C-alpha cells in the first residue's frame, strides 16, 4: 500500500482538507469567530471546539492529545475524508496490523491520526471487514426462535441416530443405533458392527417396527445410511414419512441427541476399564431410563407405552405397589380399564408436554437475536468443514457472500453458495447478515450517522449497553468547567 501523503490528498480534493474551511479555521493567527463557523458542517464545528489543541507542522495540521495512561502528549495528524479509508485499512488490515478488534484498532489509529467520529468509523470498518468475519465469524451468532414439534400419540414420530464409534467389543460391535419415540420418550438402542444402510434398516425393522409398530414419521440427520436409496425404499414400502435435519444443525433432532449424551454417560459409568464390554450394559441403561419419570411428560416411558410400570430392583425387594382398578377381573374388563387408564395418562401427558413446550420456548427465545431474511439478501454461511491434511484452526469457517433464494419455513432457507452457485438448504442459525463497506457507508459515517443501519444487524459496537446519564457530584456543583476541555472521540 502506498504511503499516505496529506498534501497530495488535499490537492486532489481541490485544495480543501475538511479543516481548512469555515472562515480560516486552520492556519490563521487568531482564533476564528464563532459566527464564522456556525453555519458549517458538524465536523468543522468539532475542530473549532478544539482549536486551542491544533498545531501546524511542516504544512500539516495536527491535534495535541494526551492518551489515557501516558505521561506525554501525542500529535495526531488530522486526516481528510479522502484518506480515511486508506488509514483504516493500514491500522486494521495491513501486514503488521493483525486484523484486531475495535479497541486495539482504535488505539493504533489514535496513536497517529485523528478525525471527528473516528471511533464510529473504526467500528464500521471492523464490522464490515470480510477477512475478519470469514475467520472469526460474527461477534454474535444469529439465533432463530425455537420451533417445536408436538406429537399426541405413541409412534407418531420416531427419531433415529447412530452413536459412536466405540472401542470394538468381543462381539465385533462398533456403534449404537439409537431410536426414540417423541411422545412416550421410549428409547431403543442396538449395538451394531457398522452403520451401513442395510444394517440400519434391518435392525430397525426386525427389532423395533415388528414389536412396536411402524411409525408415522421417521426423523434423522443427513447421514449416508439414512439418506441412501435402500433406506428410502424401505420407508416408502412401509408408508413411513422420512424427514431429516438441515446440514450441521442437529438441534432439530434434539431429543435423540440429548439421549445420546445420557447413554454415553451411563455406559462410561458401567463399562470396565478396557471399554470392550459396553454392549453388554445397553439393556441395563435402557431399563433404568424407561422406568425414570421424564420432566416434560411427568410420566415414565414405560407407563406411556404399556399403561403400567416395569418392575425394578426396588419392587423385587419391597414388592410391587397395588394398582387399583387394573389388576383382577375378567380379561375384557382388564383391557377396558387399561384403555381408560392409558387415555387418562396420555391426555395428562399431552397437557404436560404442551406446558413444558411453552416454558422451554419462552426460555429459549430470550436468547434469540437477528431477524428473518428475505430473498435477495446477502449472507455469511457457517461451514466448519474438515479437510484431510488441513488444520481446522487455520481455516476460515465462514463463506460469503451467499444469496438467499427462498424462505422454505420460518427458520429454513434455500441459499445459493458463492462460487459455482450451488443451492443448499440451511437453518437460520448458520446464516449471518453480510454487509460490505461501501462509499455510501463511509460518507454516512463522516456525516455522523449510525454505522450499522441494517435492521437485522445484531452485532453490537464497543458499547452494548445504553450509557447512563452522567451527573456531577454534589460537592462539585459550584465548579466551573473551562473552555479548553474537549473529548477524545
UniProtKB/TrEMBL annotation:
Chain intervals with Low complexity compositional bias: 440-450
One Pfam family this sequence matches: Integrase_p58_C
Bias (Basic and acidic residues): 454-467
One Gene Ontology term of the molecular function aspect: nucleic acid binding
Domain Integrase catalytic: start-end pairs: 150-309
Positions of the UniProt region annotated as Disordered: 436-475
Transmembrane segments: none
GO BP terms, alphabetized: DNA integration
Name the UniProt record assigns to this protein: Gypsy retrotransposon integrase-like protein 1
Originating species: Oreochromis niloticus (Nile tilapia)
